[in-house]
């Protein structure tokens, strides 16, 4: 009796596997599409659209799940989950181009989804808090000399970008005035310019006036934890300066966001909210290439929510925007009494997952440890 030996191949190992078994090398790269599988959730289709999509999927050997009442005719709308190999999904996209009910546009969206490529290399955003009440290092760099010294250290340790903030947005923190923020931020920006610090500097602020003044002073990006919702003028500032902006998902404001945060479907709600914010930015003149998205670890989420986001963060790549993840020293580590270096070690451990999942930017306090982590992946 023959003993069969089986082992699983990961999708990323298919090309190597095909070459190892002697498959035609000239065709192997194209053949990989037959072994790469994707599942796509499509929101809010009409019954006609859902039925045509399902039949089109079945015709190429793929599948499409719909609400059960699409068949009975009792549903007016249905979300759908379309699943198949990349090769099958490409065929579906082409066939939808021949269908009515606006499905030609859906075909284009599927083609665009399939063309998204990972940009190699995770970048490090170093954190510089000029605050007295930040959750992990409040008061350490509130003094100008301390802040300037730490800015240099972050750069020397290997930060690709430095994120400077003068307003804590930790849970239950209160807003800080424009004047107070600027009194701390502008001297550091002047210091960076006078000392020829070339690493890009982003400003962590929800205020359009703070953003405008800092961009005029040499900052290159804005990190808005409110996702452009806090200050109605922020989107105009971003558009006018044609600069990168981090659009973060948050549920509520710092004063209230951690009071029993609840979700019906966590990733759906984050996805739809980020989609709304991105569309708002684009419709107000912000360029797509300037948008970075952040799912907002700890901003209106429980510890369980935070870990679900980390495990499923690849689902946000559909936006084709760089993804930023900020989990450094946060409460999801569940070690409130540990010193910061211990928290940094566990942060590195969690960010290993982020690097493996090809998150574009990790926002961290300890740049040196994370540079060592990235060097190990080279």
A few lines on this structure:
With 378 residues, this protein is an alpha/beta fold. The protein is 40% helix and 15% strand.
Which terms summarize this structure?
2 domains, alpha/beta, eight-stranded parallel β-sheet, 15% strand, single chain, Ribosomal Protein S8, Chain: A, domain 1, 378 residues, three-stranded antiparallel β-sheet, TIM Barrel
Fold and architecture overview:
This protein is of the alpha/beta class. It has two domains: 14-114, Ribosomal Protein S8, Chain: A, domain 1 (2-Layer Sandwich); 123-376, Dihydropteroate synthase-like (TIM Barrel, Alpha-Beta Barrel). Helix content is 40%, strand content 15%. It contains 14 helices and eleven strands. It has helices at 14-20, 28-31, 47-59, 69-72, 86-96, 103-114, 144-157, 178-194, 208-216, 234-241, 266-283, 303-311, 340-356, 367-376, and strands spanning 37-46, 63-65, 77-85, 123-129, 161-165, 201-204, 221-224, 245-248, 291-294, 324-325, 361-364. An eight-stranded parallel β-sheet has the order 9-8-7-6-5-4-11-10, with helices on one face. Helix 11 links the parallel strand 8 and strand 9 (291-294). Helix 13 (340-356) runs parallel beside helix 14. The longest helix has 18 residues, at 266-283. The chain is globular, with a radius of gyration of 23 Å. The model has no long low-confidence stretch (mean pLDDT 92).
């Amino acid at each position: 009796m023959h003993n069969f030996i089986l082992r699983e191949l990961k999708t990323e190992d298919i090309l190597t596997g095909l070459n190892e078994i002697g498959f035609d090398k000239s065709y192997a790269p194209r053949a990989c599409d037959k072994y790469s599988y994707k599942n796509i959730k499509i929101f809010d289709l009409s019954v006609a659209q859902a039925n045509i999509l399902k039949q089109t999927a079945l015709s190429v050997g793929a599948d499409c799940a719909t609400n059960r009442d699409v068949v009975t005719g009792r549903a007016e709308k249905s979300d759908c989950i379309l699943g198949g190999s990349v090769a099958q999904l490409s065929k579906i996209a082409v066939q939808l181009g021949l269908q009515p009910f606006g499905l030609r546009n859906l075909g284009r969206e599927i083609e665009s989804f399939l063309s998204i490529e990972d940009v190699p290399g995770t970048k490090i955003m170093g954190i510089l808090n000029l605050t007295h009440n930040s959750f992990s290092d409040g008061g350490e760099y509130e003094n100008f000399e301390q802040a300037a010294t730490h800015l240099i250290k972050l750069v020397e340790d290997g930060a690709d970008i430095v994120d400077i903030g003068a307003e804590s947005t930790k849970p239950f923190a209160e807003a800080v005035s424009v004047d107070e923020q600027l009194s701390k931020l502008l001297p550091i920006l002047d210091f960076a310019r006078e000392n020829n610090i070339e690493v890009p500097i982003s400003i962590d602020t929800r205020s359009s006036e703070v953003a405008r003044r800092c961009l005029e002073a040499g900052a290159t990006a804005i990190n808005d934890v409110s996702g452009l919702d806090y200050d109605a003028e922020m989107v105009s500032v971003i558009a006018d300066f044609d600069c990168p902006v981090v659009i973060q998902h948050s549920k509520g404001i710092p004063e209230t966001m951690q009071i029993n945060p609840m979700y019906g479907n966590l990733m759906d709600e984050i996805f739809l909210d980020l989609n709304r914010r991105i569309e708002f930015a684009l419709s107000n003149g912000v360029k797509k290439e300037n948008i970075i998205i952040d799912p907002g670890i700890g901003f209106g989420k429980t510890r369980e929510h935070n870990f679900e986001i980390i495990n499923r963060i690849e689902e946000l790549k559909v936006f084709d925007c760089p993804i930023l993840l900020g989990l450094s020293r946060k409460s999801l580590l569940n070690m409130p009494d540990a010193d910061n270096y211990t928290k940094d070690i566990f942060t590195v451990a969690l960010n290993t997952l982020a690097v493996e999942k090809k998150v574009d930017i990790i926002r961290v306090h300890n740049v040196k440890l994370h540079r060592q982590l990235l060097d190990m992946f080279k």
